[in-house]
Amino acid sequence: MSLPFLWGVFGVNMNVWLDAFVRLQLVVVVMTVTVMGLIYLERKFVGRLQMRLGPMRTGPFGTLQSIADALKLLTKEDLRPSTADFWLFEIAPYVTFVPVFMTLLALPFMDGWFVRDLQLGLFYIVAISGVTVIGYLMAGWASDNKYALLGAVRSAAQLISYEIPLILGVLAVSIVAGSLNLNAIILQQDTVPNLVLQPLPFIILLTAILAELSRRPFDIPIGESELVGGPWVEYSGIRWSIIFALTEYAGLWGFAVLGSLVFLGGWEWPFGTRSFWGDYDFVYQLFLVFTKSFFIILTMMWISATFPRLRIDQLMSFCWKILLPFGFFQVIINGIVVTYKPSEELRDVLLFLTSSALLVAMSLAIYLATRQPSREERVGKLLASRSAQ
Amino acid sequence: MADMTTEHELDTIDVNVNIGPQHPATHGVFRMVLVIDGEEVVDLVPHIGYMHRGAEKLSENMDYRQAIGYQDRTEYLAQFNAEMCYVQAVEKLAGLVPPDRAQYIRVILAELNRISSHFMFLGAFGTDLGVFGTAFTYAFRERENVLDLFEEVTGDRLMYAYFRPGGVAWDVPRDFKERVEWVCENALVGAMDLDKLLTDNEIFIMRTRGIGILNAQDAIDYGATGPVLRASGVQHDLRRAEPYSIYDRFDFEIPIGTNGDSYDRYLVRLAEIRESVKIVRQALAQMPEGPILPERMPRLLRPAAGEVYMRCENPRGEYGIYLVSTGGTQPYRLRIRSSCFCNLSALKHMTVGHYVADAVTILGSIDIVLCEVDR
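Above: the input entities. Below: the C-alpha cells describing the complete assembly.
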C-alpha cells in the first residue's frame, strides 16, 4: 500500500470495515474539495474564453467564491411547491447524487488505492451511473411543473440513449484489456495508452459523458433558454446545490477520472510501474491521474463554452445513427482482432488501424449527415443578391 | 394482436406550455402560450401588452421637443434611429431644414446605433441557441465601445435625447472622428469574431437553417420589414427605396437572404453591421464643419396645422411616425408604426410545426423589442 503516512496513523492491520470507512471518508473529502475547485475552475476558465475575469472579489482572485456560494445556498430557503409530491420531491436530489458518488467508490486513484477493487469495476460504474436518470424523472414528475416534466422526459430519453454508446466505448476497451477490472485495464497500458489503440471509443466516450452529464451542447434537459432549468426548475437552496454543485461536478470529475484511467493510462503511462520515490510514489501517480482527468475536464469545459445546444431530435439521431453503429463496429472488430490475432505486436497495430479507420469513417458520416452548403455557397448567394440591386 | 394494439393505443393530449412573461427566451415581457404535442408545437398564442406605457398618448400632452425622450424609451436598443424618425417628422411638419453637419452627425450616430443593436441581437441569439455566454460577451464587448462613444457624445448611455428638431443638441466632442474610426475598426473585428464563432458552426447551422422559414410573399403579407423581410429575399430598405436625411449620398449595399430562415436573418444582420461601418466611414470623410442648428430657430415650435408621416429604416425594420398638428405647441396625434409588432405577427406562421427549442430560436431571430411592440 502506498499511503504510508495514513497507515502509520491507523496502525498496520486495520479492520477491513474500518479501512473501507476511512477510504470512503477520504473520497468524500477529496470529492468535496475537487467539486469546489472545479466550480471555481469552470468559472475562471470559461471567463477567460469569454474575455472576462470570472470571480475576482471574494478572496484573492476570487478563490473563495465557491465557499461563498455554498454558504449562500445553504442559508437559502428550501422551497417546495405546495402541489409537489412531497416524498418524491424531497428524495429526488439524493437519488441523482448517490449513484454519482457510488461510481467514485470503484475508481482506483493511484496504484492500489481504491475504496473497493471490484472485478467488474467498469460494469459496476456504468450500471450505477445509469440510475441517475430515475432522480431526474422523480424531480420532474414531483415538481408539478410543465417545464420540469418536459425536462424530465427529455433527460430520460437522452440519458438512456447515451448510456449505450458509453457502454460500447468502455466495452471496446475491456475487450482489448481482457478484463472489466479497472486495475487490470490500467496495468496493461504501461507502454501504450488505450487512446492510441482505441481513438474512436475515446471520442464516443467523451461525447457520451457530455450527454450523460447534460453538459452543453447536450444540456437539452436543462435547456436554460427554453426550459429554464428543466427538472430542477422548482428546486432551491440546499437541494439545488446538491443537484447542481455536487451531482454535476462530482459526476464530471468521476467520469473524467474514469476516462483518464481507461483511455489515458491512469498512473501507469508514461512511467510504467517504475518506482521513483519508493513509498512516496503515490505523489506522482496522483499527479498523473489528476492531470489527465483535468485535461479531459478542460476539454469538456471548452466544448461547453463554445457550442450551441442541439435539438432533441438531432441529439437522438446522432446517438442512434452515428455513435451506436460505429460503437458496435468497433466492438465487433475488436472481438475479431483479439480472438484471431496473428501475433501480439500485430494485434496492437491492427487495433490502432481499425479504430482510426472507423474514426475517420465516423467523421465522414457526421460530415455527410450534417453537410451544409459551403461557406462560399452560402455567403456567396448573399453577395450575389446584393449586387442585383 | 393487431386489433389489440389499435384498441389500446394510448391517447395523448396536447399540453399548453406558457413561456413568459418572465422567461429568459422572451427578451423582455413577451408571453407566448405553446400548445405542444410531445416536442412539436401545434399552436402558438402570443400575448403582448405587458409593456404598454401609452407613449403615444403621453407625447400628445407634451411640447414637440419634450416627446423626444419617449422615442428613446420606446425603442431602447436603437434610440438614435427612433429619435431620428421623430425629429424628421417634426421637421417636415415645421418646415425646418437641419444644416449639413447635423445631418452627418445624425447619420453616423444612427448607423452606429444600428451596429450596437445588431450586436445585441447576435449576442442574445447565441444565448437563445444555448451558447453559454460566449457569443454574448463577444457581442457586448463591441456594444460597450459604441455605448462609451454615445456616452461621450450625449452624456448618457441609454436615453440620449440628443437629436432635436432642426439639428442636434450640441456639437460632438473634438476627437469624435478618431473615436468613431476606432469604434468602427473594433466593430469589424467583433463581427469577424462572431462570424468565426457561429457562422460555420455545424450545430449552429443545424439549429437555424430551415427553421422558421418565411417566404417573400408571406413576409410582405405580414407587413414584415427590416432584416426579417430582407432575409426572405425582398430587397427593400428605406434608406435606398426612399432615401431620407442624406442617405442618398452614401454607397452601400443591401444584404438579402435567400431562404428566409433564422440562419438568413442572422447572416443579414451580420452583413448589415459591415454595411453600416461602410456608411459611417463615408459619412466621417464627408462630414463638414459648420453649425448644428438652423440659424433661425424658433424658441417654441408651433407647426402649422397638417399631418405628416415619416418612416425610417430602423435596425428592426420600418419605424414610422404619424404626426397630426392643429397648430398648437403639442401634437394633436402621434402614432408610432412599430416594426417589431408586424414582424412578431408572423411568429405563429413561422413556429407551428417546429419543435419547442425552435420556437425560442425563431422568436430570437425576429429580434423584438417589447417596448416598441407595446409602445
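Note for the figure: Residues 385-389 of chain A have pLDDT under 50 and may be disordered.
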